């Protein structure tokens, strides 16, 4: 079990590339493809895999709702690592197919959203079909009896399933990237590195003016930089939302811990999703320069001062 890692499969997905980059030299590692994001979560929750990788957000299309849905429901898992992978799309087909033969294109919904412009310009009459991943599209197209003529997928997937490229770089943005997260069962948090990210979901107590501002203030007054905020329906009826938040810093840091305590006081519920090293730390991102009043020492000094005055010492 301890060397098994689940990912959104089949072989050849961008998610597999993310997992291989996260676990480059893991001896005897077994990479286990799953047919859906929910199945990756289930494999980790059941202990069938030591960890799992799923897509979280894409720079063009935004959040992957299958992932955010699983992060809030069921037994909690922790995010213990992240990685960002550039996504380059190629149109692949069976040998002998030409571009003008392509009437039905299969791919993942997020990939389709990133290739709409190219499809409209180059295959305006083709119908698009959404399948569970880009590699699943390539796998389906490889079957000579397939209803699809072509797949939009990673180069590695097209090659893996014996297809031939019809057009490269079919994504509308050449610089598109997807952020993937590594999931573990709850346990030890990764050590703080100085350039970390903390993820959580906050549930407001009830709708009222300034509720979101109150949430954000918990971070602002402690000098904690938010890097992402996404509202998602809770499923409890229209107008009921929870907020996915990513913040710079590690929960072990005083200012982050205090911000989370503030949230805990004002929210109906807060689900902590993890503190883990930022993928772009090497590029210098996420290394906050806390203001004088928000270093760990400042918080600890204030705690000692409070203890003194509570003891009646005002000297
Ligand atoms: O289908 C894949 O290859 C995936 O890894 C999933 C996924 C996604 O969910 O966004 C990952 C990156 C691309 O943006 C397209 C699809």
TrEMBL record:
Signal peptide: none annotated. Pathway: Amino-acid biosynthesis; L-phenylalanine biosynthesis; phenylpyruvate from prephenate: step 1/1. InterPro entries: ACT-like_dom_sf, ACT_dom, Chor_mutase/pphenate_deHydtase, Preph_deHydtase, Preph_deHydtase_CS. Coiled coil: none annotated. Residues 4-185 form the Prephenate dehydratase domain. The lineage of its organism: Bacteria, Bacillati, Actinomycetota, Actinomycetes, Streptosporangiales. It catalyses: prephenate + H(+) = 3-phenylpyruvate + CO2 + H2O. PANTHER family: PREPHENATE DEHYDRATASE P PROTEIN, PREPHENATE DEHYDRATASE-RELATED. Keywords: Amino-acid biosynthesis, Aromatic amino acid biosynthesis, Lyase, Phenylalanine biosynthesis. It holds the Pfam family ACT. GO terms for molecular function: prephenate dehydratase activity. This is Prephenate dehydratase. It comes from the Bacteria. Residues 200-277 form the ACT domain.
């Amino acid at each position: 079990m301890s060397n098994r890692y689940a990912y959104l499969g089949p072989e050849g997905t961008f998610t597999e590339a993310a997992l291989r980059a996260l676990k480059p030299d893991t001896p005897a590692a077994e990479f286990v493809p799953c047919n859906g994001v929910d199945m990756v979560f289930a494999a980790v929750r059941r202990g069938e895999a030591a960890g799992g990788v799923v897509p979280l957000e894409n720079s063009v299309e935004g959040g992957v709702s299958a992932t955010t849905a699983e992060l809030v429901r069921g037994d909690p898992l922790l995010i213990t690592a992240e990685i960002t992978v550039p996504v380059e799309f190629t149109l692949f087909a069976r040998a002998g197919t030409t571009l003008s033969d392509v009437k039905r294109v299969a791919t993942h919904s997020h990939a389709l959203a990133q290739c709409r412009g190219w499809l409209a310009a180059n295959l305006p009459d083709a119908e698009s079909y959404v399948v569970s991943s880009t590699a699943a599209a390539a796998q389906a197209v490889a079957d000579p009896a397939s209803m699809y003529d072509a797949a939009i997928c990673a180069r590695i997937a097209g090659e893996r399933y014996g297809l031939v490229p019809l057009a490269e770089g079919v994504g509308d943005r050449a610089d598109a990237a997807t952020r993937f997260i590594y999931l573990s069962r709850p346990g030890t948090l990764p050590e703080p590195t100085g350039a970390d990210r903390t993820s959580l979901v906050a549930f407001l107590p009830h709708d009222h003016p300034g509720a979101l501002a109150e949430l954000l203030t918990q971070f602002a007054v402690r000098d904690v930089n938010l890097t992402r905020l996404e509202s998602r329906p809770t499923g409890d009826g229209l107008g009921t939302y929870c907020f996915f938040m990513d913040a710079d810093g590690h929960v072990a840091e005083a200012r982050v811990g205090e911000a989370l305590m503030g949230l805990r006081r004002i929210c109906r519920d807060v689900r902590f999703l993890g503190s883990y090293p930022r993928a772009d730390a090497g590029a210098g991102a996420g290394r906050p320069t806390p203001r004088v009043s928000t270093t760990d020492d400042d918080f600890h000094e204030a705690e000692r001062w409070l203890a003194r005055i509570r003891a009646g010492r005002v000297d």
